[in-house]
Design a protein that fits this description.
Helix content: 10-25%
Shape: globular
Number of helices: 4
Strand content: 15-25%
Largest sheet: 7 strands, antiparallel
Oligomer: single chain
Length: 219
């Protein structure tokens, strides 16, 4: 695989780039725009590989290896899909671009001040079975139902120490989506409860159709 394993990426690069989601409290309408792209002639219409399909793929989990995924290079930025007001209610006063790549796209949630916690949402082209195969993390809970028929699992770091990170992730038609929450060391909050709270919002608004999977340059 050509990416650092998802959870590790989110821990090491929770940095601010600079892409606001807007102020309306609704997802950016640009996220819903559809631009046709070229697909191989032998691709079945409305299959997972059909990048121009308008079929609702909610709950579909791909088994396509990442090195064969049609979504490499087509992942959209995450921030424009997300609603501001529900995230603000969880303390995320800023929603900013975190990573913009061919194999991963992520969006960071920030408080107004320096409060010691960090959160993010990300999507990957890696399939769920490879995503889980990460010795740095262990699955501590499975079968978590999220909006749009997504079945998620929860992961924690195996490194020990004072890690207060928790990840909630779920398989998708393009790979994997996740939310990640790092609590401050002296916080009394439960980091997994917080990661799940973000996941319940994020899962409801991410791409559900192949035709929505477009890099910003493809719109």
């Amino acid at each position: 695989m050509k990416r650092v394993l998802g959870c590790g990426v989110m821990v090491s690069v929770l940095v601010v780039a600079g892409c606001s989601s807007g102020t309306s409290g609704l997802p950016n309408s640009d996220a819903a725009k559809v631009v046709s792209v070229s697909v191989p002639a032998d691709v079945l219409k409305d299959s997972i590989r059909d990048l121009n399909s308008n079929k609702d793929m909610s709950g579909v989990v791909t088994t396509i290896p990442e090195n064969q995924s049609p979504y490499v290079g087509h992942l959209p930025q995450v921030c424009p899909f997300l609603p501001k007001k529900p995230l603000e209610a969880l303390g995320a006063k800023k929603i900013v671009l975190n990573l913009d790549g061919e194999y991963i796209q992520s969006c960071r949630f920030q408080p107004d001040g320096i409060e010691g916690w960090g959160a993010a949402a990300a999507i990957f082209t890696v399939p769920e079975y490879d995503y889980k195969d990460n010795p740095a993390y262990k699955v501590i809970r499975e079968g978590i139902m999220l909006p749009r028929n997504n079945k998620a699992f929860m992961m924690k770091s195996t490194s020990g120490g004072d890690s207060r990170e928790c990840v909630v992730a779920w398989g998708t038609f393009y790979g994997v989506a996740e939310t990640n929450y790092n609590a401050s060391f002296d916080s009394s909050e439960n980091e997994c409860d917080r990661a799940l709270a973000y996941a319940k919002i994020v899962a409801e608004y991410l791409s559900i159709k192949p035709s929505q999977m477009r890099r910003k340059t493809e719109r």
